[in-house]
Amino acid sequence: MAPRGEAVNGCPNGRSNCNIFEILEETMRHRVMVCDGAMGTMIQRHILEESDFRGDRFTKHAKSLKGNNDILTMTRPDIIYDIHRQYLEAGADIISTNTFSGTWVAQADYGLEYVVYELNKAAAELACKARDDVMASDGNRRFVCGALGPTNRTLSISPSVEQPELRNITFDELVDAYGEQARGLLDGGVDVLLVETIFDTANARAALYAIQNLFYEEYNPIPIFISGTIVDKSGRTLSGQTAEAFLISVQHSNPMCIGLNCALGAQEMRPFIESIGKNTSTFVICYPNAGLPNAMGGYDETPEIFAKHAYEFAKDGLVNIIGGCCGSTPDHINAVVDAVKSLKPREPPAFRETSTLWLSGLEPRSIGPDVMFVNIGERCNVAGSRKFAKLIIDNNYEEALTIAKMQVENGAQVLDINMDEGMLDGVAAMKKFCNLISSEPEIAKVPLCIDSSKFEVVEAGLKCTQGKCIVNSISLKVGEAEFLKQARTIKHHGAAVVVMAFDEEGQAADRDRKVEICSRSYKLLTETVGFDPRDIIFDPNILTIATGMEEHNNYAVDFIEATSIIKSKLPHCKISGGLSNLSFSFRGMERIREAMHSVFLFYAIKAGMDMGIVNAGNLPLYDDIDKELLRLSENVILNKDPEGTEKLLDFAKLYGKSGKKDEKADLWRSEQVEQRLEYALVKGIDKFITEDVEEARQCSEKYPRPLHIIEGPLMNGMSIVGELFGAGKMFLPQVIKSARVMKKAVAHLIPYMEAEKEASKLACGDDTPYEASNAGVFVIATVKGDVHDIGKNIVAVVLGCNNYKVIDLGVMCSCEKILQSAIENKADFVGLSGLITPSLDEMIHVAKEMERNGIKTPLLIGGATTSKKHTAVKIAPQYKNPVIHVLDASKSVVVCSNLLNDQQRDDYVEDIKDEYEEIRDEYYETLRDRKYLPLNVARSRGFKVDWTVDPPACAPIFLGTKVLNDVPLSAVIPYIDWKPFFDIWQLRGKYPNRSYPKIFNDSDVGEEAKKVFNDGKTMLNKICHSNLLELRGILGFFAANRSASCEDDITLFSDETRSKEICTLYGLRQQAEKATLTDSYSWADELSDEYKNQGDDYNSIMVKVIADRLAEAFAEYLHARVRREFWPYSVEEDLSCEDLLKVKYDGIRPAPGYPTQPDHTEKLTMWQVMQIERQTGISLTESLAMNPAASVCALILAHPKSHYFSVGKIAKDQVDNYAQRKNMKVEEGVHALLMAEEGRRQLRDLREAREVEAEVMKQDPEWVVGESQYFSRRWPHNIMSKTLATEVRPFESHGSRFQELWTYMLIV
After folding, report:
1. Cβ count near 292 (within 10 Å)
2. Cα four-point dihedral sign 988, 993, 996, 1000
């Protein structure tokens, strides 16, 4: 097969002067590129012998060379050239050099270290020759990647179980090895450097460090591609990092493309490549194996199966480059090329939040607006902890690790490591301790803060970590040149940096000096070094106050004010500080110091302080500080009282220096048990929790069931914890202590709750095992990226106590794990929990995947960071089945029981759906800063249907029009939807009595609803028996194609030959892909007037209401006949009238003037094409309302992929374009769109509408057409429905042979 289409901005040859960055970027934005497949698989086909690997040059080499595939570049270049050429001729855009083991580290196994540079240069030249030869034959641009493999050694894992700190290679050795390899590849002419198959991120960081040094010192930069390897379904690399943590760890090298390869097949790799794509704005590459290896080590996926997976990746917008790894061949690549050639590439997301600092250990850590304060654990600091210092000096590193582990367990989100002690070899100690941390996943999961005043110690730490660290610290006190040198080194290591407010003149003490030094440092770092401002953390110096020296009194105020100025003046930077120095003058008086720290943080965090080195576990709650001590502390910190220091000292003297607990501290033990339980939870005191819970349990009159204790005082206490945390008066370590107390309390109650359940079953004579008799199966999990489980655990307990089988998947659960568990356990519900803001995005992802996988299980959303608004706006639209926000654990049982109740479920779900729709409407109505896609971009994102997977509907039984005037009224009565009947009379029941006939049971409107309904039935019977109304309809079917002049429009033809155009139907973004027009109405006005002339207003209105219901019913009746008879695309469909009314069918039935087709002027074309007024007497008013008023206009879209949506607000470029296509003046186009409303009521005052229209036009060129506060206030029906600007759909037919079948229905 010939290679794919023409390259974008192609250059005449591989060594042209074209900018490779621009060429690749434009190509990846234009189409999905394809890279080659496996080199080793192809080499194995040749069944080579030792002589092939030796060639002429190495005949006398001392070691065996068989298996050294890289050396074949020098000994059998013909084979390697041929493999490159086969991949290129199969259609690959990119090939990789045969240098996977091209470092001296790997070649040392064969004794060939000395040929490494030569080998890599020759490999690059050979690949480039193959590229150039194929390019010369077909003219299409190709690219060569210089491959740098992982080596056979690792920086993060010890080769000895007995010595976890041992390593068999150093960072510097790897930098040297990768540097030599990269130099050979660059000199050989590669277009890209590809660091691939990364199983240990520390190794990759060494490779990237070497490459960056080469680019800085010797070579012009070329693009860098990075590809990691997730070794199994755990979603981690061999060295333990998650995909997100890996991404963060290598992002500093500014790769053009990042992704995954090897170890897994495409199916297994999908969730991890999705995760990569969600979290990076770079392009994404993926080249999986051809499935998982079989028992013989081979790969079974055929080219067809492999290409199908590639197609799914590309169709779902996951990749920019797709290819193959182990087991793939040119046949696989050729099939992939065919599969993805017409698909659009992934569009890298533009992240909303630009100021978030991302760090990583084995797991990711974000520091941004959603994170109130980050606690940096301080106890692994030899200068700050005597215990830790003694352990390190005594070489008791194992015990020292327990301190690190305790810090993480107590809530440290970053771990500070400092080895600056006169009796220590700081470099050796830092290296050993960091290596040991790598062997402890519970510690290594958090990022490290490498803390030292000696830069060689800092470097030692950076060389031993695979994650993205913080360096604490550098400053200008060493001079500008050294400062820049250190900063550049840190940047090449990919770390964030703390910059102290020091310069050549010394330490900044006052506010202005702090701001001055930080501003100078920021400019040097961002403009000279190119540091990402998000990776800059300033420490403006927390200095000691209350020393008795007046010049020190304002130090805290200076820090707080400087923090605020720095955050506003220096975009995206962070602020940190060491808290202990603040209160140094009160050393030994721990109660005073802790109060001062708590007060200081309260104000500093408000000013913008992001993180700090602080033992937060010992901080008192701001609200719990003794009121007098609080007042005195605030006076000192805020410098409000000149005598503040003396007064605080006087207070300290009364208190004493012992640091012992206040004698009044145990007074809470005399409170009632409820108050004690709440106090223990808020304070994180677990000493008495078991006995207090038991005391409450013994109060059987007050708490008949153990569950009532959880739902009562324990939940009350946790609610207080949540409020304090949200208000900034508690920190995460304190919350974690509270959670532990809660777990201990619940653990005491669980045996009693289990016994209660068994006793209840026995009393009912039920001896069925619990597992078989549960009320329902509930799978619950804290989503990936989140480790908080307080609320989740409470929900699990509450549901368990109500006889639900709860499958608790724990924390950090991947989407794949959640879905797999839901399917395997046949879950009735899936519950997602999360505390931090990034969890919200993961919940959206889970909802999308549930929809993609065809799961129909209700999805329940809960957790501190969630809300009903976010659930309604962001999550629910991603999943067609019920998505419900659950406020707290006590509500979970009610939600589940409603969903399981067959009698209530539909009404309950409908009630939630309506409520969430109102929330979405309100949310979008308040948006004032929405962005709009240019029209050409919106069109480029048009929805595409794969007709091989979802073929078009069958042909109708006739083309043209057909009048129906013999349909009896009795035929349409079963299709009447009575709910709008009650809405018109403003009778709205409350759940669960909202729908018909349950509205009759409503306590407020039930009786009146029954009366009105009976009157309506009487009127309906009279109309039917006396034939007072007649039904008449007209259908029209026409062959249709997408318009040749504009993809948004549809051209109708007179017959199937499509040679004669009838008209064009014009569409707007966003819209769906298949359509049938229908229109229906009733001549009820004369009958209504008869009653009105008799003074019977009630029956005058009733006639119109019944006529309106009949019109809608006839529309649905004819819709059903169209589906099964006239256009039999659903001939086997077995849906009741009720199912049709509840839209349980494939396809949709929207209407002109409604959100999907908001332009009423399209009715003019409909009336003209089908001669509606001549054949039926139905006319259009000046404002394009149908006359008579009880008329229905709708579009039937047959394809199962069609769904309801809103065009939404549109920008001026689309209005201009739309008006031009319709030969309208722009003002007329604006007016037509302003007439669109969600309902069939015409605008009340056309003149007033035009006045507003004129005002809108004055806002040119930035105005948008759509609802405004003015319109939504004056007319209850929104002028233009709202939707996200990114969800753009075209109003189009797909494929030249697809028949757009439009139907008009009219009722007389």
Report:
1. 16
2. negative
What's at 1288, amino acid-wise?
A: V
Is the pLDDT assigned to residue 1082 strictly greater than 50? no
Give the Cα separation of 1249 and 1183 in Å (integer): 11
The dihedral built from the CA positions of residue 371, 372, 377 and 383, taken in this order, carries a sign that is positive
- What token pair was written down for 152? 């056979």
Three-point CA angle 158, 812, 863, nearest 5°? 155
Question: Can you tell me the distance from the alpha carbon of 163 to that of 904, in angstroms, rounded to the nearest whole number?
Answer: 63
User: Are 585 and 676 a contacting pair, CB within 8 Å?
Assistant: no
**pLDDT at residue 1076, rounded to an integer:** 30
Calculate the alpha carbon distances from 702 to 310, 668, 674, 699, 754 in Å: 62, 21, 11, 6, 20
Measured between alpha carbons, how far is 581 from 578 in angstroms, rounded to an integer? Answer: 7
Mean pLDDT along residues 736-741? 76
Specify the DSSP element, H or E, that contains 7: none
- Residue spans of alpha helices (H) in 713-809: 715-726, 732-763, 790-801
Contacts of 698 (CB under 8 A, 6+ apart): none
- Per-residue CA distances from 838 to 226, 246, 254, 356, 871 (Å): 24, 17, 23, 11, 14
Q: Could you give phi then psi for residue 696, rounded to 5 degrees? A: -65, -40
DSSP line for 131-161: HHHHHHHH----EEEEEE---S--SSS-S-S
Q: Compute how many other C-beta atoms are within 10 angstroms of the C-beta atom of residue 437.
A: 25
Tokens standing for 297?
Answer: 């080590």
List 239, 253, 275, 839, catalytic entry: 839
Q: Is the Cα torsion angle 819, 824, 830, 835 positive or negative in sign?
A: negative
| Alpha carbon distance 346, 1222 (integer Å) | 34
Distance (Å, rounded) from C-alpha 133 to C-alpha 85?
9
Active site residue 911: no
- Cα 785 to Cα 194: distance, rounded to the nearest angstrom: 28
Q: Determine which one of 93, 535, 786, 1079 is catalytic.
A: 786
DSSP label of 886: -
pLDDT of residue 1008 exceeding 90, the answer is no
* C-alpha–C-alpha distance, residues 275 and 234, integer Å: 13
To the question of pTM greater than 0.85 for the whole model, the response is no
- The bridge status of strand 506-507 relative to strand 502-503 is antiparallel
Are the beta carbons of 514 and 562 closer than 8 angstroms? yes
Name which of 312, 1214, 104 is nearest 853 in CA terms: 312
Q: What percent of the chain has pLDDT over 90?
A: 46
CA distances from 740 to 733, 746, 790 (A): 11, 10, 9
Q: Which of 366, 379, 616 is nearest to 496 (CA)?
A: 366
Rounded-to-integer distance, Cα 503 and Cα 911, Å: 64
Rounded Cα gap, residues 513 and 554, in angstroms: 14
Among this protein's residues, is 572 annotated catalytic?
A: no
Could you read off the pLDDT of 141-154 as tens digits, one per residue? 999 999 999 999 99
Of the candidates 1217, 1200, 918, which has an alpha carbon nearest to the alpha carbon of residue 1048?
1217
- Cα–Cα dist 978/962, whole Å: 29
Distance CA 166, CA 163 (A): 6
**Is position 786 annotated as part of the catalytic site?**
yes
Q: Which residue has the tokens 């603040």?
A: 582
**Which position among 84, 252, 493, 788 bears the catalytic label?**
788
